[in-house]
């Protein structure tokens, strides 16, 4: 039987995705630039319906038509190189899929270029890491709708399934929409990770709890509204001991520097480009950057004074205060992420379905969490919802939890512990709900020094004040 789909790229993601597809009853063609990798996969899984090829020509020729080819190669130049090699071998109506972590504008460009030759191009976000690829990722495909329909049966089989049985994949929109939504997913992931790290820092260095005690707290939090993959693995991480034998928790041995692959930065730059407030993700990106300045921080820690006053708080209530602040701040982060998608959807003409997007993140991906159901419910109730905070459920959480965030921010600032995520969350909340911001002063300044004119509260039009005229 001819393979119904082919996978290019036999590194961990491509291999696991090919095995996942095969396990759902398909025959899968496999190819990798370095043939030995293809050979190793074929040998290791000789009992499976995998068809290895060692030239790109053989690989393309082996496939059922219209061909479905999924690329799982390094994003960027490698993806362009593979497209250039494959393109002359394809026929009109074939579907080329890029499952890499590609920048959405590259996908828009490739989609438009390939469309000229009648080749369909789908850019799909794939989240869930290597285990997700093998067992069921969350997938965010964008491109020609009719091309998506050709791969939908396969994608729906290989994707993770939510508790209601729905596959965690849905058509996102034209050209780069899928990779855009994956980019926002990754930005949100940065925010979630940062908020969890800040909570750990406060529990450890302000409350003074042990790593074991913090593990138990996270584990407990995971039973309630914070129930999510990232809280769950953090609880697990905190229970692990050093594998090099010191007997200490492994987290105490891990250096406090976090690199990044750039997807958080993409979300933030796009927010700046479209002029959308995206402070929590952006602060999370900055937090990673400042973490990388370890040598400078160590030197500064020796010369810059720390706060002198003592912080006082009620030990019994502070853990619940942190839990509330974490949930409140997570909601602010998602409110910003969905706001960004709403504005981008108009800007790039995608018609994104926000409830559907939240629903395909419920399982399979790194940000999977119980509260995504609340987001889906909010958009089911009101598809044109301006901001998540205006939904009754989220409004009620904000009402009940805001005090905890305010108290916690006070404690942390007094203690001198950085909380860029929590502070940006409460600042966003207070800015978004502010009837009047001090932007009148900025307008006046701009009109004063640059004659940029100003708008008035009591009549339409633009005005210029004679700042230099004697009163
Ligand atoms: P890598 O991102 O490490 O890429 C390695 C693959 O790219 C190999 O198959 C390699 O072939 C191929 N490749 C390169 Br590099 N340059 C090439 C070229 N010029 N022509 C043809 N092939 C080329 O693999 P990965 O970690 O499996 O990830 C694959 C994609 O999935 C990436 O875009 C990644 O960002 C994305 N992703 C990864 C994860 C994850 O958890 N790892 C999660 C979600 C998405 P070779 O063997 O001949 O060098």
UniProtKB/TrEMBL annotation:
The keyword Kinase belongs to this UniProt entry's keyword annotation: no
Oxidoreductase recorded as keyword: yes
EC number, as in UniProt: 1.1.1.44
Uppermost EC category: oxidoreductase
GO biological process: D-gluconate metabolic process; pentose-phosphate shunt
Keywords: Gluconate utilization, NADP, Oxidoreductase, Pentose shunt
Subunit details: Homodimer.
Role: Catalyzes the oxidative decarboxylation of 6-phosphogluconate to ribulose 5-phosphate and CO(2), with concomitant reduction of NADP to NADPH.
Family: Belongs to the 6-phosphogluconate dehydrogenase family.
PANTHER family per the UniProt record, alphabetical: 6-PHOSPHOGLUCONATE DEHYDROGENASE (PTHR11811)
Protein name in the entry: 6-phosphogluconate dehydrogenase, decarboxylating
């Amino acid at each position: 039987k001819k393979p119904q789909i082919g996978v290019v790229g036999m590194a961990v993601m491509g291999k696991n995705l090919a095995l996942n597809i095969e396990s759902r009853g398909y025959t899968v063609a496999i190819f990798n630039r370095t043939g030995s990798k293809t050979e190793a996969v074929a040998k290791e899984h000789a009992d499976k319906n995998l068809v290895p090829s060692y030239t790109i020509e053989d690989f393309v020729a082996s496939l059922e038509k219209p061909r479905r080819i999924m690329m799982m190669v390094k994003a960027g130049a490698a993806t362009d190189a593979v497209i250039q090699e494959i393109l002359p071998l394809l026929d009109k109506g074939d579907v080329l899929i890029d499952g890499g972590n590609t920048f959405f504008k590259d996908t828009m460009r490739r989609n438009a270029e390939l469309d000229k030759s009648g080749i369909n191009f789908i850019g799909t976000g794939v989240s869930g890491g290597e285990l997700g690829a093998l067992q069921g990722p969350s997938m965010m495909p964008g491109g020609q709708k009719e091309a998506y329909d050709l791969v939908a049966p396969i994608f729906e089989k290989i994707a993770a399934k939510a508790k209601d049985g729905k596959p965690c994949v849905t058509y996102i929109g034209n050209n780069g929409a899928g990779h855009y939504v994956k980019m926002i997913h990754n930005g949100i992931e940065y925010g979630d990770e940062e908020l969890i790290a800040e909570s750990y820092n406060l529990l450890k260095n302000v409350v003074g709890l042990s790593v074991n005690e913090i593990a138990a707290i996270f584990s407990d939090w995971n039973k309630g509204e914070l129930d999510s993959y990232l809280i769950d693995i953090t609880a697990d991480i905190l229970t692990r001991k050093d594998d090099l034998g010191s007997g200490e928790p492994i987290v105490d041995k891990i250096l406090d520097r976090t690199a990044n692959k750039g997807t958080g930065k993409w979300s933030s730059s796009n927010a700046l480009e479209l002029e959308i407030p995206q402070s929590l993700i952006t602060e999370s990106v900055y937090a990673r950057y400042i973490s990388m300045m370890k040598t400078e921080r160590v030197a500064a820690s020796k010369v810059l004074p720390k706060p002198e006053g003592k912080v006082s708080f009620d030990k019994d209530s502070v853990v619940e205060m942190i839990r509330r602040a974490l949930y409140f701040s997570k909601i602010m982060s998602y409110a910003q992420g969905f706001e960004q998608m709403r504005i981008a959807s108009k800007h790039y003409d995608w018609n994104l379905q926000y409830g559907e997007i939240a629903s395909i993140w419920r399982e399979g991906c790194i940000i999977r969490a119980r509260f995504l159901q609340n987001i889906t419910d909010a958009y089911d109730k009101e598809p044109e919802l301006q901001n998540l905070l205006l939904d009754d459920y989220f409004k009620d959480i904000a009402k009940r939890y805001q005090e905890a965030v305010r108290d916690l921010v006070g404690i942390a600032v007094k203690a001198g512990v950085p909380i860029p995520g929590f502070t940006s969350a409460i600042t966003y909340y207070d800015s978004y709900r502010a009837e009047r911001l001090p932007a009148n002063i900025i307008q006046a300044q701009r009109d004063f020094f640059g004659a940029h004119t100003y708008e008035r509260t009591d009549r339409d039009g633009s005005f210029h004040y004679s700042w230099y005229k004697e009163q």
